[in-house]
């Protein structure tokens, strides 16, 4: 412990050096945390985000019975259970249209239900007295009210759950005071594959409101029915539950199914439990984060090693002297070792702690301010302890090794004379220092190029996936006659938050080119607005396409080809072809027509919004498809169409704006789709995850790249300043011997330029080597084939050419010039004093040098 | 008086790339407690080598050194270090202060390494005598050569070693400062009854000495 204080007081005097070590250590750790924790943090936060939207429950019994609660509590694999009680339905006073439309569930929810469902209020509080109500935002709007608390609303409340007389429905007017506004959730729950047959509770009242509702409604029974027995209104319990394991196993689901089958009446009651398909999802990040994290680990550790070496070289001469003096005045080896140990602890522990803290804070800030800005999701900062431990271990062992080297050097020098390193050794240190400067320069350039390259890659990825539609809607395939009408599309387009609605139809056809073999492909008819990605020569060309004069064939080979004649054949589709996968065509040929085919080279990046983008698929206009179907005798099934019926749109792609969620757009759309018995596919969440995956990799790339660059820069400046001190002595001597200022400056600037140049060259070389290895690793089989075909030199050259082509020559030039300039400025700035060429420290030349 | 330092058959051979250098060629020596002994000789004659061998800083190739009856080079490294900081002090020509510690910490370092607290009154007295009581918070880099050497002397004296070795302690100082420093060193040594062995070229100092050892080419030519 005594040596700890000795070490501390010694360190305190070497403040600059210590600050450098601690800063480097801090940066090293924070970049480790930042780059490694960002991934985990984002996937944890994403999960949180998803759970906020879809609830954290795993299963639900929406059409529950009283005895279910006991059954649920007896399953030991069920974690928590939340219960809601559906009292009836609530609807707009003036709404005399059918009962089912625009009526919403009304009831009470318990604490557990609110928690498992993550029901949140955007305003106000949950109801406490019997005349208070908390309502979903969108429901308030349908009821014709503002989403604010304190207003008194008058609504119709009804129930059709009367014991004994199931056909009867009772209504009455009620007034409630709105005490809370609930964030929309019911629509979101219905949007996924969850089977939600009962109304979810959109309007929450206190349990005590039941007596009031039942009482008022029962007064009506006398007026409506002439029923001999006692009439009761039933509450319907609804249960949400979680699995203890985090998700339900098939066996557990089976058990639920069996239970329902044994307690429900077939055909009358709901036999299907609901499962929350969104809550059990594994974080996507685990799938989407490949080895580039490893690249960063290696990079950070390599720079860390460089850093330790720098610090070691910086401290070597002085430390050697120090230890020697200590030994000279009688410090034992053990005391010296303990001194070194404490020095290390005092430097490493604060550095590591500050670094970890700063990294965690940075992660939080990045997530809050950038990725999840505008969302109230709680940011989950996840700290990768395992990686940190490895990093810390690595750090400590390198520092230890460096220290041991200093110690060994100090132990070897005789305790006589100046107690300093001999000339030869210090010259050797100088050589090392030179290499180190070059190495640091290379590291800086490699990092810069790598960051730009990777960043560009990820930007393209984000662009691609952001271009994909958010939702796909399919018209009910059992209803072959119907389709979405144009006013349906108009209505969807008018929903705030809906950015784009693209209607299209797909039918299976067979095509043969120039009398060749017939191939089964999809024929997609697209709307005019949807054709922006199709290449037309001019307007006449475009209108020719829309009037159905030719079709496009997707061809990713990207080679120019002439327009061709093809024969299109339409076969009858199997009646039961609700599964649109292959083998859907019967042998009955319905129609056959020649058509002109033009090749479409698809650039995935600009137009992956399309459908049927597999090679060979056809894209046509609605006019073309309508004509095609019209030529077939009525009453035949072709894809989702029945010939002879009015042509309409069967499929929609929807894109939402970024604010869609705040505007409840998904809820409206979900509701809209549900009312039309159609199907909706939610890509928004999964693609958001993908885009977020890219985003977080992008942030990681920039953050880690920035940290590494900063670290390298810090080290570079300190090694350079050391060198400058050394050189000042030499140049002053040369000046005394008659060198003029001009040639001194020339010599210094020339050396700096040479160094920057070599660093840039070395940096690019390292990057290209890495790049070749990386591409090889990502596709070893294909590359091996290429390798044996080309020979390795030509193969490498081919790869390098591709990389340069990807980056673009202009970007490469700017990058290289920027790197050289930055290095040059850094070197010249630290040699500023030297460049002035003064002889003011003549006296110093004889003095004892640091080296 | 009893013999405190005894050397028998000391030989030292430096092995260099250009052949072996025999710096000491069989030196015998007996020093009594409390004497002031001056070592003189030409440059390169082996004075420093002798001092290093006597003080345990550098192991001789051959021969034995006994301090207070104990065989110095039979000790392990750790015990030797402890023994050295308790019984011997060394003043270097290049001062060799610890640059990361201030003057006070430097002076107290040997005691601290021993886990002892310096005697405050004694510390006062020494710094007073050496005239460095105003510089205690300064760092070695901020002191002049004479001041640094006085700090080194204080460091040496504070631990009250029985033996003090000084290898040209005034070699880097101007004449006047050198003489002042030397006077301080000798007066300290006599005051606390310490045995002092000093390498010097200064005839004035040689005159003050109780005993003079002249070395020529690794051999003691005149001992008293
Ligand atoms: N570390 C060493 N390596 C090789 N030779 C040395 C070393 N130290 C001293 N010598 C040689 O030993 C001889 C005695 O040196 P030294 O004791 O330093 O002389 P002095 O102190 O009397 O000037 C000299 O010839 C010197 O060159
Ligand atoms: Mg000498």
Helical element count of chain A?
24
Strand order of the largest sheet of chain B: 6-7-8-3-9-10
| Gyration radius of chain B, in Å | 17 Å
Q: Which structural class is indicated by helix and strand composition of chain B?
A: alpha/beta
Largest sheet of chain A: 6 strands, mixed, barrel
Would you identify the CATH H-level superfamily of chain B? P-loop containing nucleotide triphosphate hydrolases
What is the string of helix and strand elements of chain B? Answer: EEEHEEHEHHHEHEHEE
Beta-strand percent range of chain B: 25-35%
Report the C-alpha radius of gyration of chain A, rounded. Answer: 37 Å
The largest inter-chain interface, given as chain pair and residues per side, is:
A-B, 28 and 30 residues
Whole-number total of structural domains of chain A? 3
**What's the CATH architecture name of chain B?**
3-Layer(aba) Sandwich
Q: How many strand units of chain A? A: 21
Determine the structural class of chain A based on helices, strands and strand pairing: alpha+beta
Looking across the biggest beta sheet of chain A, what order are the strands in?
2-3-8-5-7-6
Assembly type of the chains comes to heterodimer
Shape of chain A: globular
Mean pLDDT, all residues of chain B: 87
Report on this structure.
Chain A has 851 residues and is α+β, with helices and mostly antiparallel strands. Helix content of chain A is 52%, strand content 17%. In chain A, helix 2 (15-54) packs parallel to helix 11, helix 2 (15-54) packs antiparallel against helix 12 and helix 2 (15-54) packs antiparallel against helix 19 (684-736). The longest helix of chain A has 53 residues, at 684-736. Chain A is globular, with a radius of gyration of 37 Å. Mean pLDDT of chain A is 78; it is low at 282-290, 577-583, 604-612 and 840-851. Chain B has a single domain, classed as Rossmann fold (3-Layer(aba) Sandwich), CATH 3.40.50.300. Chain B has helices at 47-55, 77-87, 103-113, 120-130, 145-158, 175-191, 203-208, and strands spanning 3-16, 19-32, 36-41, 62-67, 70-71, 88-91, 163-167, 195-199, 211-216, 219-222. In chain B, the strands form 2 sheets. Chain B has a 6-stranded mixed beta sheet with strand order 6-7-8-3-9-10, with helices on both faces. A 4-stranded antiparallel beta sheet of chain B has the order 2-1-4-5, covered by helices on one side. In chain B, a hairpin with a 2-residue loop joins strand 9 and strand 10. The longest helix of chain B is centred in the C-terminal third of the chain and has 17 residues, at 175-191. Chain B starts with a strand and ends with a strand. The mean pLDDT of chain B is 87. Chain A binds chain B through residues 2, 6, 9-11, 13-14, 318, 321-322, 324-335, 414-419, and chain B through 48, 52, 57-58, 77-78, 81-82, 84-86, 88, 90, 92, 94, 96-102, 105, 109-110, 112-113, 115, 139, 155. Residues 14, 16, 21, 23, 41, 43-49 of chain B line the site of adenosine-5'-diphosphate (ADP).
């Amino acid at each position: 412990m005594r040596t700890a204080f000795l070490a501390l007081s010694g360190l305190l005097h070497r403040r600059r050096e210590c600050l450098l070590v601690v800063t480097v250590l801090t940066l090293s750790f924070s970049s480790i945390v930042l780059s490694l924790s960002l991934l985990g943090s984002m996937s944890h936060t994403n999960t949180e985000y998803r759970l906020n939207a879809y609830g954290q429950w795993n299963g639900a019994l929406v059409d529950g019975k009283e005895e279910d609660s006991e059954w649920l509590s007896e399953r030991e694999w069920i974690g928590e259970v939340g219960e809601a009680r559906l009292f009836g339905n609530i609807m707009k006073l003036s709404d005399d249209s059918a009962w089912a439309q625009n009526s919403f569930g009304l009831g009470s929810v318990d604490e557990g239900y609110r928690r498992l469902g993550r029901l949140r209020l955007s305003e106000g509080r949950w109801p406490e007295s019997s005349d208070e109500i908390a309502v979903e935002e969108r429901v308030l709007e349908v009821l014709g009210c503002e989403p604010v608390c304190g207003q008194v609303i008058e609504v119709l409340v009804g129930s059709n759950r009367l014991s004994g007389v199931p056909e009867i429905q009772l209504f009455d007017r009620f007034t409630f005071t709105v005490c809370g506004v609930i964030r929309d959730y019911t629509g979101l729950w219905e949007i996924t594959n969850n089977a939600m047959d009962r109304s979810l509770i959109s309007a929450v009242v206190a349990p005590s409101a039941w007596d009031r509702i039942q009482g008022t409604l029962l007064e009506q029974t006398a007026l409506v029915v002439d029923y001999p027995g006692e009439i009761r209104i039933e509450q319907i319990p609804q249960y949400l539950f979680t699995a203890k394991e985090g998700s339900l196993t098939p066996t557990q689901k089976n058990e639920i199914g069996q239970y329902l089958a044994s307690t429900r009446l077939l055909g009358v009651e709901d036999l299907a439990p609901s499962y929350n398909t969104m809550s059990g999802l594994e974080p996507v990040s685990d799938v989407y984060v490949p080895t580039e994290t490893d690249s960063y680990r290696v990079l950070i550790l390599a720079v860390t090693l460089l850093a330790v070496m720098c610090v070691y070289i910086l401290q070597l001469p002085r430390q050697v002297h120090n230890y020697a003096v200590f030994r000279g005045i009688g410090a034992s080896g053990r005391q010296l070792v303990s001194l070194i140990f404490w020095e290390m602890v005092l430097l490493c522990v604060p550095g590591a702690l500050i670094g970890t803290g700063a990294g965690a804070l940075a992660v939080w800030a990045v997530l809050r301010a950038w990725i999840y800005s505008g969302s109230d999701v709680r940011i989950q900062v996840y700290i990768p302890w395992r990686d940190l431990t490895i990093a810390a271990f690595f750090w400590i062992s390198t520092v230890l090794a460096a220290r041991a080297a200093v110690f060994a050097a100090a132990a070897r020098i005789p305790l006589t004379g100046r107690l300093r390193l001999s000339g030869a050794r210090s010259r050797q240190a100088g050589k090392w220092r030179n290499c180190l400067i070059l190495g640091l320069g290379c590291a800086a350039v490699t990092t810069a190029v790598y960051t730009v390259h990777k960043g560009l890659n990820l930007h393209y990825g984000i662009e691609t996936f952001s271009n994909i539609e958010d939702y796909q809607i399919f018209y009910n395939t059992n209803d072959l006659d119907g389709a979405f009408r144009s006013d349906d599309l108009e209505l969807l387009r008018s929903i705030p938050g809906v950015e784009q609605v693209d209607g299209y139809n797909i039918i299976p056809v067979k095509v043969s080119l120039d009398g060749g073999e017939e191939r089964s492909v999809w024929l997609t008819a697209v709307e005019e607005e949807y054709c922006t990605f199709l290449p037309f020569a001019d307007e006449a060309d475009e209108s020719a396409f829309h009037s159905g004069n030719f079709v496009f064939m997707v061809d990713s080979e990207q080679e120019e080809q002439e327009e061709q004649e093809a024969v299109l054949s339409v076969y009858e589709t199997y009646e039961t072809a609700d599964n649109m996968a292959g083998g859907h065509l019967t042998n009955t040929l319905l129609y056959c027509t020649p058509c002109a085919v033009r090749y479409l080279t698809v650039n995935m990046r600009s137009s992956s919004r399309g459908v049927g983008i597999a090679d060979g698929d056809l894209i046509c206009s609605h006019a073309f498809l309508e004509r095609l179907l019209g030529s077939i005798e009525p009453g035949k099934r072709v894809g989702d169409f029945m010939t002879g019926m009015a042509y309409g749109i069967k499929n929609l792609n929807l894109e939402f704006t970024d604010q869609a969620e705040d505007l409840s757009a998904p809820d409206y759309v979900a509701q809209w789709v549900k009312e039309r018995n159609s199907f909706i596919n939610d890509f928004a969440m999964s693609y958001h995850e993908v885009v977020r995956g890219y985003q977080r990799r992008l942030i990681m790339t920039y953050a880690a790249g920035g940290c590494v660059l900063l670290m390298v820069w810090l080290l570079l400046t300190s090694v350079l300043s050391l060198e400058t001190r050394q050189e000042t002595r030499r140049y002053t001597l040369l000046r005394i011997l008659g060198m003029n200022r001009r040639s001194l400056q020339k010599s210094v600037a020339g050396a700096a330029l040479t160094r920057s140049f070599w660093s840039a060259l070395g940096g690019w070389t390292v990057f290209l080597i890495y790049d070749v290895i990386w591409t090889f690793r990502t596709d070893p089989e294909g590359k091996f084939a290429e390798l044996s075909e080309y020979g390795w030199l030509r193969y490498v050259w081919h790869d390098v050419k591709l990389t340069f082509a990807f980056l673009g020559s202009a970007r490469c030039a700017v990058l290289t010039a920027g790197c050289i300039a930055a290095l040059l400025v850094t070197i010249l700035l630290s040699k500023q004093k030297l460049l002035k060429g003064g002889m003011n420290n003549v006296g110093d030349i004889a003095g004892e040098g640091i080296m | 008086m009893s013999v405190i330092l005894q050397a028998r058959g000391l030989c030292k051979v430096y092995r260099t790339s250009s052949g072996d250098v025999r710096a000491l060629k069989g030196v015998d020596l007996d020093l009594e407690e409390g004497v002031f002994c001056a070592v003189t000789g030409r440059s390169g004659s082996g004075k420093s080598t002798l001092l290093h061998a006597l003080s345990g800083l550098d192991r001789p190739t051959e021969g034995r050194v006994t301090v207070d009856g104990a065989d110095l080079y039979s000790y392990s490294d750790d015990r030797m270090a402890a023994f050295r900081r308790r019984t011997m002090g060394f003043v270097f020509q290049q001062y060799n202060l610890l640059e990361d510690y201030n003057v006070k910490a430097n002076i107290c370092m040997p005691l601290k390494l021993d886990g002892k607290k310096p005697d405050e009154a004694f510390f006062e007295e020494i710094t007073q005598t050496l005239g460095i009581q105003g510089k205690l918070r300064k760092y070695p880099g901020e002191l002049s050569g004479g001041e640094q050497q006085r700090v080194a002397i204080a460091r040496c004296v504070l631990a009250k070693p029985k033996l003090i070795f000084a290898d040209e302690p005034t070699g880097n100082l101007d004449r006047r400062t050198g003489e002042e420093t030397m006077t301080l060193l000798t007066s300290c040594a006599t005051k606390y009854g310490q045995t002092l062995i000093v390498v010097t070229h200064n005839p004035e100092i040689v005159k003050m000495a109780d005993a003079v050892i002249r070395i020529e080419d690794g051999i003691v030519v005149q001992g008293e």
